[in-house]
Automatic annotation (TrEMBL):
Keywords: Plasmid, Signal, Transport. This is ABC transporter substrate-binding protein. It holds the Pfam family DctP. Residues 1-21 form the signal peptide. InterPro entries: DctP_fam, TRAP_DctP_sf. CDD domains: PBP2_TRAP_BpDctp6_7 (cd13602). NCBIfam families: TRAP_S1. Belongs to the bacterial solute-binding protein 7 family.
Amino acid sequence: MFNRFLMTLTTALMASTAASAETITLRVLGQPSGSGLIAQQKEEPFFKALAEKTGLDIKVEYLPVDVAGIPDTDGLRILKSGLFDIVSIRGPQVSRDEPSVLGLDLVGLNTSFEAGRKHMDAFKGYVGGRLESQFDAKLLGVWPAGPQVIFCKPEIKGLADLSGLKVRVGDQSAANFVAKLGATGISMPFGEVQQSLSRGVVDCAITGPASANSGGWPEATTTVLPVALQLAVNGYAINLKSWEKFSPEQQEKLAAAIDELNSDIWSFSEELYEDAMRCNTGQTPCERGKPYALTEATVSEADLKTVAAAVGEVSLPVWAKQCNAVAPDCEETWKKTIGAELGL
């Protein structure tokens, strides 16, 4: 089914591409159109202006993953196929195909932007090597959507109240974490969450405050518990054959431009988090989102300890087993890099 879908979409894209022999066409598969302001105000404008910014003789065709009709879980397969030249990788979603990606952002690992920068920098070289060997792709950097917090339809006061509830999660690490709390982790595309909350298909859902605001989640929930579980790592990668169409000097210009985008998103993500938390809970100033009136549950010391302990007790052991199954040196490398940072 995937191969048939690939052939159909390839034919459609080839028919729509009319570039001269000298001009390099870069087909970019972006973040979902409804996922929030990072996609709308940073990613899409950047790629649409990439030719002008770099001075390269390129034509960029940017398409959000949901508009393309491609499951965001297929990002790495799409990249390897060459159907798109650059893919905006959604880390949690593609981790089923490449578990090492999840090692950048295990539950309990990145509870702040500062920690996230340190840990992702330490391990992204290994992830990049895996993408190159397994998916014929070059990693062009990583960035966070922002702290992933918990939105619930029933009122909750802390993590203990998740017991018995159905919680939408972004990846297996989060599913394992909520299972330890007595909840059931349910995976579903972002676009389906708001309606699922409204209908009671799920009781709670995990995402960043800005994405929740863009997706209208506060309309279907009552409470937000702002305990940061992860940073929701994303990134950019380019198909190696596409990369090799450029000269070394051109590659340097392209990589430098995307480095700048990654850096810009890191800063923007932090600004968005603070503004969206104010918007979602009816506080001011609310400059970038829609105002709502969610109750903000107080994060207890017990909740902070539960999240901090999750790395050693839940997320690392389960993830290491999955990652070692496809890459025997995965856990060992993680412990020598991120593990060393943590003093493990």
